[in-house]
Design a protein that fits this description.
six-stranded mixed beta sheet, alpha/beta, about 50% helix, single chain
């Protein structure tokens, strides 16, 4: 029996591509969530955090990276991340019911709230209303609310200050109005790009849109650590997801930014 080598090559290529295409489809549609969404073991003896928002929460592994950088300073964090991609239910309006149920369990010390940037442009009243409701629920359940803004608009691979202005302003207003902690990640990224040569904090190619890479997640985690716990990260944790040559520069930028008058 003769084997048609051309047909065989075609079938080999097809079978090689199918798993890749299925993986891309699974991640894009959230059929499979390829990330750690919960680490709540022995939460009673830890700082426990509920993360609520879009993919800008888990892109770059922010919850895990914060856990790593704080643990090296003897602060143990446990967390649950209920965030979803923006087009798959990742707005605070869509999260609201689930987030309220989670806060009512009594498991959490903090709740991190993040919403899609476009809501600050086309639904500011809805955004502020959702934040207010969730912050009120947090306090009713002895949970401290944290607002987290992200540099989710870029130009030429860098944060776009002009387009980010509305989002930054909205989060500052909401934080003041609701007496919530504000983690100013968007502005810290702007600062980092101005002070550290040739850094790269965004993914170079992502079918889901503009997201943080591991370096960006590390910087954001350092901003959280400095804002919440006044930690000055001066060494890269052994189990850090990001160990690039600029890691300590990013950590220093986070410290400088949070403690500056910006």
């Amino acid at each position: 029996m003769r084997i048609n080598k051309k047909k065989l090559s075609v079938w080999i290529i097809i079978f090689s591509l199918v798993p890749v295409l299925l993986a891309v489809w699974a991640v894009y549609t959230d059929v499979i969530i390829l990330r750690k969404t919960e680490d709540m073991a022995n939460y009673e003896n830890t700082v426990s955090i509920l993360w609520v928002g879009s993919s800008h929460v888990f892109a770059g592994n922010v919850p895990q990276q914060l856990q790593a950088v704080t643990e090296s300073y003897d602060i143990k964090i446990t967390y649950k991340d209920i965030s979803r991609h923006g087009n798959r239910g990742g707005t605070l309006r869509e999260h609201r019911e689930n987030a309220i149920k989670e806060m009512q369990t009594g498991k959490f010390d903090y709740v991190v709230l993040h919403d899609q940037s476009r809501r600050s442009l086309n639904d500011i009243d809805g955004l502020l209303s959702d934040i207010q409701i969730l912050c009120e629920t947090a306090r009713e359940n002895s949970v401290i609310p944290i607002l987290y803004d992200f540099a989710c608009m870029a130009a030429d691979g860098q944060p776009d200050e002009e387009r980010l202005r509305a989002s930054i302003s909205a989060y500052k207003h909401a934080a003041a109005e609701n007496d919530a902690i504000l983690v100013r990640a968007a502005e810290s990224w702007i600062y980092a790009y101005k002070t550290i040569p040739e850094i790269s904090l965004y993914t170079r190619f992502d079918l889901r849109g503009l997201h943080s890479n591991k370096a960006g997640g590390f910087l954001t985690a350092c901003v959280f650590a400095t804002t919440l716990f006044n930690l000055h990260i001066e060494e890269v944790p052994k189990d850090s997801i990001y160990k690039g040559n600029d890691a300590l520069d990013l950590a220093q930028a986070a410290w400088e930014f949070v403690h500056s008058s910006h």
